[in-house]
């Protein structure tokens, strides 16, 4: 290594220092390196075992080879460039170095000379490692470039296939940026070495740069400027997906000013690079200096000032100049987000609500909205857990999920939750390694409830609201072969965030705690016999996993045996991300019961931000709504996108962890590229089991992205789009604090033009900046239907229909409804409003439906359904059931209905609900009852104030008086 520099031994002063200190340092470094290598090996080896066990060993091999290859190529090039630069600079140093009195550099050279060889190696290795790590992190860019194809459609500006922008352009940018970075690093190191050894003398009156330094610096600058010329040329293509002041893509200013400026700057940069190369022989900095100044001035004039002049003096006075470019943006955006005319049908919704219709109207309305989901998956979560959790160490992920099942020959919407292991519920004194990782290993079963308050045979209304408490027996209805064929153990789920060690010696008793299959409150024990874990019977494997998880118990615990397996990466999201790291996954995995097993389903998206001309927005902003705000969920990615497809449906078996990827959008070119990069990992769509297909649904994240874009891009006329007066917005949820968008909801809706119900996902729009309703958008979510994914936008032409915010305000402020809710609000209970559903009927206009839940303090810590509210034709109604609420709304067209106050629900309600009164009491009784209720409301308010002030005796006295007033009002109305 001493031959790397042609130094004279006399240049090196005698080395000094303690040999013991040097030995300690070397030992410490060696131990650190050994530890790093050991942990790295353990991580790679265990990953290899996991992928191989899952049947995706080819994914690990492909990723390892690509990352390692990119690391070596980029690392060696950068490290070699750095080493060559330093060596060349040192070898070309002046033979006569300046004295210390000239510039004071002698002491720095004396410090560097003894270690310059190691310093060279160290700097080159560090630069190589950083460059290699950066290159390895670009494996997605490389694989898309290697395997990408054509989209079959050209961009309207350069005539290049869209695949060039999505697959090729990012890779060419990566290479150009790497060359620029390497040349800058080499240039800085060259300057440093030349200055240190006298090749650059700033204090000298002449010959400030030695000939060797001039040659090297000129060459490096020329390389950088040439790379910059290539960067300018590639920037021309970036304009088609660049962010503009009004839109994504090329604008008038880009076309007339920026685009030609980029081409001119590329030409000037080439000329500048040639001048620096000429400087190698001419030995004068005049010409390259002029070239560099010309490039800098041109970049300012052409790249900044000229576009600003064009924008300010041509576009701003005449915005219509943007119309041709905006038209291209509209077309590209609608294609990129799959919201063009082939997927979206916009039509006027002219069905008018008429509360004074025929006598059969109530029956017709009830039939058309009978499937309205009154069970709010977020609000009833606590109710499910309270009524169905046999043990504290089981819990349900929040929010619950909505799916449909064929029960009794009829499609029924259900709210489901999976009973998963929750180790936070284990007694603290029992939280040792053995219990946490070998005893408490899994959850058990599902909890389900009908979503629409209807009995199975539709013979009449439910006789109680216990449907909202969930019914463990309902899981047997989901299993066609009966309860004996149901695998209820859940080893892989949304809350399985830790590893588990399973397996027992031959002939030994089971040690894993289990719940009896009968669902009774009884414990038993079991042993896992699936293939979701990695065998760790050998000492070497236990050592590797002990290092991986940082636990000595893998070597010391008595629970380890020859049949032991370790289960990890146990959440559905983790497992799919590992085997398909190129997918963007929805955060919410939803459970389905198929063929006697619980399967988790995840929607996988292919996205890009390089689709030419399409509008670019934040994925998080487009998908954020009240549901995510309440649950803390966040979807990925959080960066900008302008293209999205639901390319893959993934399933994870809740018992054995088997991961399967099914191609869903088989026409997606990005999916084709990844399938080529990882052959055999994605199964064809035809491989989806018939039993699973009905449970695949239209993904909410994609729907929310599409509604975000359709709010503006339903306007296809560029001139009207530029004005923005026809834009819509997604309304904020009126029932929750803060400015959170309403979440879409799943329900059965009548198909337009027929009586057939369609499993749908629905949302609403209001005019931009106003509250009335503009449109209702639904999408066919039935994966078995050829119309799956077809969106229907029902636009209200009159623009006078009340929007969700206005309807909620009316419902909340209605005196009759307020009086009905009065007993729930005055005794310390909490009234919570559920989803406000906008339901377009096929022939009777729009109806709004909203469930209201009451949480009765500590005596009933979970919410139960108190009332159903309805708004129809601006008439309001309420009742214990949807049918009663509809009847109430229709009757309110005559003399207003006076509510019958009821007592708050008991913690475990049963029996028949109190019916809504069918007759109108006389006016005097009604007025007196209203006065009594007003007095009761005042007393309830005073009681609450007394309680907050700590005067509980006064509070009880006021409550008794208020309840007496309510009882008197009830007596008047009976």
From TrEMBL:
<feature type="compositionally biased region" description="Pro residues">
    <location>
        <begin position="898"/>
        <end position="918"/>
    </location>
</feature>
<dbReference type="GO" id="GO:0016020">
    <property type="term" value="C:membrane"/>
</dbReference>
<dbReference type="GO" id="GO:0005576">
    <property type="term" value="C:extracellular region"/>
</dbReference>
<keyword id="KW-0472">Membrane</keyword>
<feature type="transmembrane region" description="Helical">
    <location>
        <begin position="117"/>
        <end position="137"/>
    </location>
</feature>
<feature type="transmembrane region" description="Helical">
    <location>
        <begin position="217"/>
        <end position="234"/>
    </location>
</feature>
<feature type="transmembrane region" description="Helical">
    <location>
        <begin position="23"/>
        <end position="46"/>
    </location>
</feature>
<dbReference type="Pfam" id="PF03699">
    <property type="entry name" value="UPF0182"/>
</dbReference>
<keyword id="KW-0812">Transmembrane</keyword>
<feature type="region of interest" description="Disordered">
    <location>
        <begin position="891"/>
        <end position="936"/>
    </location>
</feature>
<feature type="transmembrane region" description="Helical">
    <location>
        <begin position="285"/>
        <end position="309"/>
    </location>
</feature>
<feature type="transmembrane region" description="Helical">
    <location>
        <begin position="66"/>
        <end position="90"/>
    </location>
</feature>
<dbReference type="InterPro" id="IPR005372">
    <property type="entry name" value="UPF0182"/>
</dbReference>
<protein>
    <submittedName>
        <fullName>Uncharacterized protein</fullName>
    </submittedName>
</protein>
<feature type="transmembrane region" description="Helical">
    <location>
        <begin position="171"/>
        <end position="197"/>
    </location>
</feature>
<keyword id="KW-1003">Cell membrane</keyword>
<feature type="transmembrane region" description="Helical">
    <location>
        <begin position="257"/>
        <end position="278"/>
    </location>
</feature>
<keyword id="KW-1133">Transmembrane helix</keyword>
């Amino acid at each position: 290594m001493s031959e790397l520099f042609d130094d004279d031994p006399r240049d090196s002063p005698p080395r000094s220092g303690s040999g013991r200190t040097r030995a300690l340092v070397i030992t410490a470094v060696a131990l650190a390196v050994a530890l790093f290598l050991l942990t790295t090996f353990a991580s790679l080896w265990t990953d290899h075992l996991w992928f191989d066990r899952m049947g995706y060993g080819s994914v690990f091999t492909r990723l390892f080879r690509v990352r390692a290859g990119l690391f070596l190529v980029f690392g060696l090039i950068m490290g070699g460039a750095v080493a060559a630069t330093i060596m060349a600079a040192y070898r070309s140093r002046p033979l006569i170095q300046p004295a210390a009195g000239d510039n004071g550099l002698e002491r720095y050279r004396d410090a560097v000379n003894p270690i310059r060889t190691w310093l060279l190696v160290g700097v080159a290795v560090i630069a190589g490692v950083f460059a290699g790590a950066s290159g390895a992190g670009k494996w997605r860019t490389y694989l898309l470039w290697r395997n990408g194809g054509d989209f079959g459609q050209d961009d309207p500006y350069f005539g290049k296939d869209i695949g060039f922008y999505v697959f090729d352009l990012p890779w060419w940018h990566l290479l150009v940026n790497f060359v620029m970075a390497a040349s800058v690093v080499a240039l800085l190191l060259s300057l440093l070495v030349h200055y240190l050894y006298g090749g650059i003398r700033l204090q000298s009156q002449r010959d400030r740069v030695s000939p060797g330094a001039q040659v090297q610096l000129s060459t490096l600058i020329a390389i950088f400027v040439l790379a910059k010329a290539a960067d300018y040329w590639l920037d021309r293509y970036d304009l088609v997906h660049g962010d503009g002041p009004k839109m994504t893509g090329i604008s008038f200013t880009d076309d007339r000013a920026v685009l030609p400026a980029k081409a001119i700057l590329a030409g000037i940069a080439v000329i500048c690079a040639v001048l620096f190369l000429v400087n190698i022989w001419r030995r004068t900095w005049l010409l390259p200096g002029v070239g560099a100044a010309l490039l800098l001035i041109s970049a300012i004039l052409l790249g900044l000032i000229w576009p600003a002049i064009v924008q300010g003096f041509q576009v701003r006075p005449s915005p219509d100049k943007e119309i041709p470019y905006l038209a291209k943006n509209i077309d590209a955006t609608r294609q990129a987000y799959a919201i063009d005319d082939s997927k979206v049908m916009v039509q006027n919704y002219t069905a008018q609500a008429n509360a004074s219709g025929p006598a059969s109207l109530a029956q017709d309305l009830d039939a058309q909205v009978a499937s309205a989901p009154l069970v709010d998956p977020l609000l009833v979560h606590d109710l499910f857990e309270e009524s169905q959790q046999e043990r504290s160490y089981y819990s349900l992920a929040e929010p619950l999920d909505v799916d449909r099942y064929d029960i009794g020959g009829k499609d029924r919407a259900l709210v489901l939750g999976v009973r998963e292991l929750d180790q936070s519920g284990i007694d603290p004194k029992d939280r040792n390694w053995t219990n946490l990782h070998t005893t408490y290993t899994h959850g058990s079963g599902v909890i389900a409830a009908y979503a629409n308050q209807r009995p199975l045979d539709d013979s009449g209304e439910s006789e109680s609201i216990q449907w909202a408490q969930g019914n463990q027996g309902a899981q047997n209805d989901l299993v066609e072969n009966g309860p004996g064929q149901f695998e209820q153990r859940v080893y892989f789920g949304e809350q399985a965030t830790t590893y588990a060690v399973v397996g027992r010696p031959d002939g030994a008793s089971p040690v894993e705690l289990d719940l009896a299959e009968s669902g009774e409150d009884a414990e038993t024990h079991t042993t896992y016999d699936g293939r979701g874990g990695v065998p760790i019977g050998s000492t070497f494997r236990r050592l590797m996993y002990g290092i991986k998880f940082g636990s000595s118990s893998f070597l010391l615990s008595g629970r380890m045996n020859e049949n032991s397996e370790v289960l990890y990466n146990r959440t559905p999201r983790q497992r799919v991300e590992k085997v398909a790291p190129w997918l963007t996954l929805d955060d919410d995995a939803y459970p389905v019961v198929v063929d006697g097993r619980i399967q988790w389903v995840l929607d996988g998206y292919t996205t890009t931000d390089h689709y030419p001309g399409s509008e670019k927005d934040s994925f998080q902003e487009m998908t954020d709504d009240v549901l995510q705000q309440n649950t803390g969920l966040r979807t990925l990615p959080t960066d900008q996108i302008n293209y999205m497809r639901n390319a893959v449906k993934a399933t994870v078996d809740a018992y054995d962890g088997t991961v399967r990827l099914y191609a869903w959008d088989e026409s997606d070119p990005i999916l084709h590229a990844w399938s080529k990069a990882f052959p055999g990992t994605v199964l064809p769509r035809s491989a989806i089991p018939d039993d699973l297909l009905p449970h695949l649904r239209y993904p909410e994240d994609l729907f929310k992205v599409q509604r975000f874009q359709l709010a503006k891009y339903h306007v296809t006329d560029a001139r009207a789009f530029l004005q923005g007066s026809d834009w819509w917005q997604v309304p904020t949820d009126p029932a929750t604090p803060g400015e959170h968008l309403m979440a879409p909801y799943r329900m059965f809706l009548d198909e337009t033009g027929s009586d057939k119900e369609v499993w749908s996902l629905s949302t609403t729009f209001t005019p931009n900046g106003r509250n009335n309703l503009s449109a209702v958008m639904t999408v066919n979510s039935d994966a078995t239907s050829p119309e799956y994914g077809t969106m229907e936008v029902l636009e209200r032409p009159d623009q006078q229909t009340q929007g969700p915010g206005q309807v909620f305000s009316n419902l909340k402020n209605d005196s009759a409804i307020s009086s009905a809710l009065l007993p729930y609000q005055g005794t310390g209970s909490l009234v919570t409003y559920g989803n406000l559903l906008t339901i377009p009927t096929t022939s009777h206009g729009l109806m709004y439906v909203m469930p209201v839940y009451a949480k009765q303090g500590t005596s009933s810590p979970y919410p139960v359904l108190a009332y159903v509210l309805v708004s129809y034709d601006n008439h309001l109604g309420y009742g214990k059931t949807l049918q009663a609420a509809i009847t109430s709304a229709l009757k309110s067209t005559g003399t207003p209905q006076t509510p019958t106050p009821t007592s708050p629900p008991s913690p475990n309600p049963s029996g028949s609900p109190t019916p809504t009164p069918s007759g109108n009491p006389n006016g005097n009784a009604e007025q007196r009852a209203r006065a009594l209720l007003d007095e009761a409301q005042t007393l309830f308010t005073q009681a609450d104030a007394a309680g907050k002030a700590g005067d509980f005796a006064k509070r009880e006295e006021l409550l008794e008086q208020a309840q007496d007033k309510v009882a008197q009002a009830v007596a008047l109305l009976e």
